[in-house]
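Hey, quick one: can you model this chain's 3D structure?
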Amino acid sequence: MAQALHTRTGGRILVDALKAHSVDTAFGVPGESYLEVLDGIYDAQSIRFMTCRHEAGAANMAEAYGKMTGNPGVCFVTRGPGACHASVGVHIAHQDSTPMVMFVGQVPRPFVGREAFQEVDIERMFGWTTKWAAQIDDPARIPEFVSRAFHTARSGRPGPVVLAIPEDMQRETAVVADVEPAMLAPSYPGHMEMRRLHKLLSRAERPLMILGGGGWTSEACDDLAAFAKANHIPTLVDFRRQDLLNNRHPSYAGDLAYAKDPKVSERLRQADFVLAVGTRLGDVTTEGYTLLQPPRPQATLVHVYPDTNEMGRVYQPDLAIVASMAEFAAAVKTLEPLDWMAWGDWVKAARYDYLETLEAAESPGNIDLYKVMDTVRTRLPQDAIITLDAGNFSGWPQRFYQFTQFRTLLGPANGAMGYGVPAGIAAKLVAPEKPVVSFVGDGGFMMTGNELATAIHHGIAPVILVFNNGMYGTIRLHQEKRFPTRVSGTDLTNPDFAKFADSFGAFGAAIEKTEDFAPAFEEALTCGRAAVLDIRMDPEAITTRSTLTQARETALRAQHGGTLPAGARTSKPASAPVATNSEEAPAGAFAPPWQSNAPTPSTSTPRQAPAMAQTPEPATT
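Sure thing. Here's the predicted structure for all 621 residues.
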């Protein structure tokens, strides 16, 4: 049926275009550069505008919405300052392959190129971190641009699109029809490609499958799980993609993240066949391109990816299959199962090694972080959603929490701090019936913790666990490894996060010993409002496999020919302050602010560091 055309402003045309693409939520910080759009949303009953407190928070929420739904998350920001603040969310969407469309209010068209107030060249600024960046200068072309933006964000390798909307263009009127969403054209694997894949796998003795990237569906995950089970293929997942395969699946063998189990690294190094599905096989996955040597790995490589431009970019696969995730998964599921006895011991060992990583780890200090994770794991239902910020603390949920369902993990694969809280808000907005728990460090929380105001304003109730060690822990670990005892720029002075939460109207509680956590966590889950648990952990608990002192002493020994220098601390209780030079620091000098009376160091023998130290996750700060 033909549309009844009438005159509309550019702002109203844009809102109607969003409605035509079934957009139900937009995140943003209001600006005078897109008032016409806000006025159009006022009449759009089907679109809720989530008013945020910072553009970085708004962009992160939009990115998390894209991860949760598979549809482009929508964000609105204003001109130069707003666009710059929001750029972190665009970069996350780029490296995480998340569909997202961001609209940036722009200066009036006659002012463009004159460095007008808050002007920024959107196409130049976002050109390399987006799939497409453009400016809409004609209101009659808004439906065309919006249709292209949403199609581009979802097609092939998903990713972000940024459109500038000059404020005077939004005030102009035009007569134009709305455009329905374009149908996606998925890529299908060829019959000959699937036959060759089957033949290459049949020759393997030590096969591995790696799952990663974006563009997945629940059905695709189920189909790959069935293929892995039928062929008994050990399966690894990319950094922060543990929810692509049920961690209790007999083929699940761990994740290729920072701080990965050394046995996982060795398994990938020893594999003679690698089926990489959806992953780019980046530097995190391959430990700096060492586990698989570019351009021609020793293992037979079959690379499945939805974008032909990725094929051969770093690795030259023996078989390249350009296909969408759902279409490839459906095809590979139908292959005749192979006789897997040739790698039977291999798959059993891979699964055993993974299960071994779930065993209790020693956690120094008054708070046993393993027991904290055990409480979280046993209390939450399987459909609970976990959001992660960036930092070494995230090693605890990444190692000890088992993900069993698709879209239950949201984390920034680009390592951006400040993601966990906004992602938790977006996840709870999308799935209000499910528990949402956000893991964040004290550094990351102070970057976007102001979005608690957004949660309270809109009645959203995530539970936020703040791992508070009074420092930028990831950077501190790197620092101790390279410049042991020379602490510079990594200590933090924090507010009382429980009182901070209370000031917003959220539930807040301070956790100072292990026994405090379970009752506080229960109250946080059931209180019906946003909640913050301030977990005042010991700074020594720097990773799940080593302490800060062990990292420092290992570095000192390496610098002094294997011998710890005279005067250096050789043992240290978990709750003692960290020494910053060869002399013992005064009690409490470098402890978190709540440890005003640190205990006297003892001479007990500390837990020995593992043979292969855990690699810390980089952070943006």
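One thing worth noting: Confidence is low (pLDDT under 50) at residues 570-621.
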